[in-house]
């Protein structure tokens, strides 16, 4: 805990702990084995399919192996790794409300709940692009799409809210977000929709309309048709500005929805 937080009193310390819990599922991706034991890589996303074009859809539809099931497996436990983000959120919500679950299990799943509600609102955590030549197994949520800004499409959309993840910087950004009425008012309405599957569908629709827009999809179509390698796509300032605006709105929606989910848990 940073000294500025430690000396800031209980409120600041609780905020910091909340932040740390929310990023903990990313922190356990690496490190020693006892840390990596908590990693569940597939819990971060669902690959609802988008197809590069009609020909790709005709060739690949019905042949995909991506897990798009939304019901929680009957044998799900905190050690289950084969769940997508919708299943993981539903499992976490159920177990956090289960008085028979151990405190340790509920603590782990509460951190996952904090994290995955945010993840599912990032459009590229809800979908993947498929095409016969470039992406027969999907583009890994944009990770395989190279762009001149931020290396790949997924990283770009991850970084739209800002690269500084320090306590003070993230707190200041959150305050700025909730003081922006054009963003906050729609988010307040969004908190009435607490179906995780619909959150994923929203992200898929945003990805189709805004992520793989008229700059990305045509470029990928040319690469698909040419037989050449995946070349970095240069995105316009207009694209980057629109992406930042969309990301801010999705973050605030995720925050209000997480708050509503937590209030439900407290009542139980």
Task: Walk me through this protein's architecture.
By secondary structure, this protein is mainly alpha-helical. The chain has a single domain (3-267), classed as P1 Nuclease (Orthogonal Bundle), CATH 1.10.575. 56% of the residues lie in helices and 3% in strands. It has twelve helices and two strands; from the N terminus they run αααβαααβαααααα. The longest helix has 31 residues, at 237-267.
Give the helices and strands, then pairings.
Blueprint: H1 3-6, H2 10-27, H3 33-36, E1 48-51, H4 54-60, H5 85-96, H6 103-120, E2 127-130, H7 153-159, H8 167-178, H9 181-190, H10 196-211, H11 216-226, H12 237-267
Parallel strand pairs: 1-2
Helix pairs in contact: 2-6, 5-6, 6-12, 9-12
How many domains is the backbone divided into?
A: 1
Q: Give the helix/strand class.
A: mainly alpha
Envelope shape: globular
Helices, by number, come to 12
CATH class (first level) name? Mainly Alpha
Mean pLDDT, to the nearest integer, reads 94
**What's the arrangement of strands in the largest beta sheet?**
1-2
What oligomeric state is this? single chain
Measured by DSSP, the beta-strand proportion falls in under 5%
CA radius of gyration: 19 Å
CATH topology: P1 Nuclease
Annotated CATH architecture? Orthogonal Bundle
Summarize the structure.
The chain has 268 residues and is an all-alpha fold.
Offer a few descriptive terms.
268 residues; single chain; P1 Nuclease; 12 helices; mainly alpha; 56% helix; 2 strands
């Amino acid at each position: 805990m940073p000294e500025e937080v430690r000396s800031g009193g209980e409120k600041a310390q609780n905020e910091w702990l909340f932040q740390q819990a929310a990023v903990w599922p990313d922190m356990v991706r690496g490190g020693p084995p006892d840390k990596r034991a908590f990693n569940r890589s597939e819990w971060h996303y669902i690959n609802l399919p988008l197809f590069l074009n009609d020909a790709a859809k005709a060739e690949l539809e019905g042949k995909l192996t991506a897990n798009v099931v939304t019901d929680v497996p009957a044998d799900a436990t905190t050690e289950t790794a084969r769940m997508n983000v919708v299943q993981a959120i539903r499992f976490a919500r159920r177990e956090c409300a289960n008085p028979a679950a151990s405190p340790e299990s509920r603590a782990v799943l509460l951190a996952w709940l904090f994290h995955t509600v945010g993840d599912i609102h990032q459009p590229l955590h809800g979908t993947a692009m498929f095409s016969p030549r470039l992406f027969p197994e999907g583009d890994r949520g944009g990770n395989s799409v190279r762009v001149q800004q931020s290396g790949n499409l997924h990283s770009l959309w991850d970084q739209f809210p800002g690269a500084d993840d320090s306590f003070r910087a993230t707190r200041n950004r959150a305050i700025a977000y909730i003081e922006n009425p054009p963003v906050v008012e729609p988010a307040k309405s969004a908190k009435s929709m607490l179906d995780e599957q619909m959150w994923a569908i929203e992200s898929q629709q945003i990805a189709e309309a805004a992520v793989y827009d008229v700059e990305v999809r045509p470029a990928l179509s040319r690469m698909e048709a040419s037989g050449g390698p995946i070349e970095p796509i240069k995105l316009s300032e207009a694209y980057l500005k629109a992406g930042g605006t969309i990301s801010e709105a999705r973050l605030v929606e995720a925050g209000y929805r997480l708050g509503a989910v937590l209030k439900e848990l407290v009542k139980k």
